[in-house]
């Protein structure tokens, strides 16, 4: 076959295959259309059945509604009939009630008329009796007025007679006054002559004699005053010393507060000595960054597994300790991380300070205090005075003052508030000039504290003389808290210097033979020469020594000054 024939055959085959494929596809489409038409017809039949069922239900419901409507109409007719019956019964009952009310009203009106007639008769009788009484009272008043006029006339006659007699007495007194004036002039002349004669005899002028007399009386008065002071002090001690000692001892015994001496160095324990190298860092960059950021000196020595943090600011030292502790626990130590941890530790210490202040306020029982004062009180959590924690000292002082105030019958809340805030000035740094007592008073006055509280704060170290009982009790409570054995510490050098100065003050007085400082400087025994100082002089000497010690020295608690005067007489029996 030729190639053209092959092409025609292939074309016919392809055309036949295409026709067969079209027939197959057309048959499938026809069957699918028939299936869909059948399904649609079935769905339509179902919908028609459902519609017929719904129509049947609707017809049944309509029949039910018609039956209910008929029953409702029957009930409405019965209700209207019942209503007409009730209305007729109500009309008849209303007529009956109205008739009864008319009869009752007529009866009440008759009773009222009768009562009014009787009341009018009683009023008329009462008015007649009252008129008679008024007439009798007028007659009695007229009689009293006539009697009073008669008495006034008699009194006027007596006054005229008395005035006449007084005129005579005045003339007599004028004569006597003239005579007395003449006599006084004569007496003055005689006294002047007498004074000149006495000056001539005594060889002294009146001014000189007066001066000598005043000096003599002044010396005698001083001696009598010293005797009187000694007697008064003895009597006061017999009654008041026991009472005061009981109050102070009772207050101290009831306050059981623990005391911890703090220093300027904190110790932080490390998990191992390898951590020291990481704290120092390469070429010491970590330790330099730590000290510059926190302001705390870091001391790393041969102490195993421990480093020292040194700083005179306790709050800054605590922030540094907490920063280093967090860095050690975290393990990442580099300058940037040190700054991050330092900010976190600083915020944490501030929160701890606020919490400590709130706990102290709750412990003392003080409310309604300015928030700025609360922040300042929180700073005192890390401040010390001679090793005594200042915040604990304030709490203890407040309790002691409150107990004393209760014993003396004073205002306990005001007393506690004064004692609790007396060292608030210590919360500020050295940048604020002045004594902590005056600074604290200015702060309390600024934040609205009562003037009695302000005065107690500024007077607790005698920068201002105490004028109120609150100020005196604040001083006493402060001395009791700070003067307890072990509450505070001081350097040996300052202790020795204070003892030496006490002995110098007592030894420099006239008539003193020996001076002994006893009980760690809390008592002084002064031995005097009995020939130079008598008993009155010994009392004056004790007062002078105590006053000079108060003015020159600063010390916790109190110092007792005892002057001993001993007379010895020795005689030999042969």
TrEMBL record:
Name the residues that span the membrane.
6-27
| Record's GO cellular component terms | plasma membrane
Indicate yes or no for the key word Membrane: yes
Location of the HD domain:
390-483
Entry annotated with the keyword Ligase: no
Its organism's taxonomic lineage begins at: Bacteria, Bacillati, Actinomycetota, Actinomycetes, Micromonosporales
Q: Which residues form a coiled coil?
A: 41-68
Keywords attached to this entry:
Cell membrane, Coiled coil, Endonuclease, Hydrolase, Membrane, Nuclease, RNA-binding, Transmembrane, Transmembrane helix
What is this protein called in UniProt?
Ribonuclease Y
* An example molecular function term from Gene Ontology annotations: RNA binding
Q: What class of enzyme is it?
A: hydrolase
- Where, subcellularly, is it found? Cell membrane
Q: Which family does it belong to?
A: Belongs to the RNase Y family.
Q: Which GO terms describe its biological process?
A: mRNA catabolic process
């Amino acid at each position: 076959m030729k190639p053209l024939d092959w092409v025609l055959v292939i074309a016919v085959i392809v055309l036949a295959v295409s026709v067969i494929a079209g027939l197959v596809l057309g048959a499938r489409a026809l069957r699918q259309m028939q299936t869909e038409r059948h399904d649609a017809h079935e769905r339509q039949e179902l919908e028609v059945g459902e519609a017929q069922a719904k129509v049947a239900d609707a017809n049944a419901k309509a029949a039910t509604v018609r039956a209910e409507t008929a029953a409702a109409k029957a009930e409405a007719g019965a209700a209207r009939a019942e209503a007409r019956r009730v209305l007729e019964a109500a009309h008849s009952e209303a007529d009956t009630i109205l008739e009864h009310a008319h009869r009752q009203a007529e009866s009440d009106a008759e009773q009222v008329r009768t009562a009014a007639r009787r009341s009018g008769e009683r009023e008329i009788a009462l008015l007649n009796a009252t008129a008679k009484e008024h007439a009798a009272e007028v007659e009695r008043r007229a009689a009293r007025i006539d009697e009073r006029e008669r008495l006034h006339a008699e009194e006027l006659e007596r006054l005229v007679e008395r005035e006449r007699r007084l005129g005579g007495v005045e003339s007599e007194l004028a004569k006597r006054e003239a005579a007395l004036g003449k006599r006084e002039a004569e007496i003055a002349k005689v006294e002047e002559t007498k004074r000149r004669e006495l000056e001539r005899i005594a060889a002294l002028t009146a001014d000189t004699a007066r001066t000598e007399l005043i000096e003599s009386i002044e010396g005698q008065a001083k001696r009598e005053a010293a005797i009187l002071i000694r007697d008064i002090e003895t009597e006061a001690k017999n009654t008041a010393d026991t009472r005061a000692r009981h109050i102070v001892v009772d207050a101290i015994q009831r306050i059981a507060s623990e005391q911890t001496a703090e220093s300027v160095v904190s110790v932080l324990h490390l998990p191992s000595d390898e951590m020291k190298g990481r704290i120092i860092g390469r070429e010491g960059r970590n330790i330099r960054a730590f000290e510059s950021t926190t302001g705390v000196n870091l001391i790393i020595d041969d102490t195993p597994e421990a480093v020292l943090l040194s700083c005179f600011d306790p709050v800054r030292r605590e922030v540094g300790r907490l920063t280093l502790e967090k860095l050690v626990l975290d393990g990442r130590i580099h300058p940037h991380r040190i700054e991050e941890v330092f900010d976190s530790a600083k915020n944490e210490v501030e929160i701890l300070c606020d919490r400590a202040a709130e706990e102290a306020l709750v412990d003392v029982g003080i409310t309604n205090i300015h928030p700025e004062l609360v922040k300042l009180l929180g700073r005192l959590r890390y401040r010390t005075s001679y090793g005594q924690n200042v915040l604990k000292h304030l709490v203890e002082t407040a309790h002691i003052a409150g107990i004393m105030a209760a014993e003396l019958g004073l205002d306990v809340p005001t007393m506690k508030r004064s004692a609790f805030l007396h060292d608030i000035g210590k919360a500020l740094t050295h940048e604020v000039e002045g004594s902590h007592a005056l600074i604290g008073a200015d702060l309390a006055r600024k934040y609205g504290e009562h003037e009695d509280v302000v005065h107690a704060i500024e007077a607790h170290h005698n920068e201002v003389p105490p004028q109120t009982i609150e100020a005196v009790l604040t001083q006493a409570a402060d001395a009791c808290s700070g003067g307890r054995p072990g509450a505070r510490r001081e350097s040996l050098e300052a202790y020795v210097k204070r003892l030496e100065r006490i002995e110098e003050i007592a030894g420099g007085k006239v008539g003193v033979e020996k001076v002994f400082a006893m009980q760690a400087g809390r008592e002084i025994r002064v031995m005097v020469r009995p020939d130079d100082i008598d008993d009155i002089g010994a009392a004056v000497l004790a007062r002078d020594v105590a006053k000079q010690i108060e003015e020159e020295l600063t010390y916790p608690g109190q110092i007792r000054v005892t002057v001993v005067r001993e007379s010895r007489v020795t005689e030999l029996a042969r």
